[in-house]
Amino acid sequence: MPSHPSTQLETFANPSPDRDYTIRMQIPEFTCLCPRTGQPDFATLELEYVPDRLCVELKSLKLYIWSFRDRGAFHEAVTNEIADHLVAATQPRFLRLAARFNVRGGIQTSVVVERRQPGWQAAAPGALP
Question: Which of 36, 59, 63, 114 is most buried, taking the most CB atoms under 10 A from its CB?
Fold first, then answer.
């Protein structure tokens, strides 16, 4: 059965909701179209989040990311849109999405978006001997 792009993000229950831990993903094949020229824009998305009750299901994330391939979008808008959709679907304690776009016209662009639940703070990093 062939797959196709989807705008739906699926979730599953966090297996360890009683603790903070970070999920990190690198998505090196993101593409969308420049809304001015129609030319493709390529980016690596770096997603990290601390789940609360839900985690994003990876296949649905892959199909969701694919849905941007033929859409015109400014770098800033598409990065914020993806972060907003991920937050709406999973309600994480913390989420950071960095979109590192390839050079176009001699300019390399990175957009970083963060969202956090009110009052949530990261634990201090542990020092090892």
Answer: 63
What is the CATH code for 15-116? 3.30.1130.10
Rounded to an integer, the average pLDDT of 44-71 is: 97
Query: 3-class DSSP state for residue 45?
Result: strand
Parse the chain into domains and list their residue ranges. Answer: 15-116
- Which string of b and e fits 80-90 if b means at least 16 CB within 10 Å? bebbeebbebb
Prediction pTM value: 0.93
**Strand pairing report for 11-13 and 40-50:** unpaired
Active site residues: 34, 41
Q: Coil, strand, or helix at residue 55?
A: strand
H helices of the chain, where? 58-66, 75-90
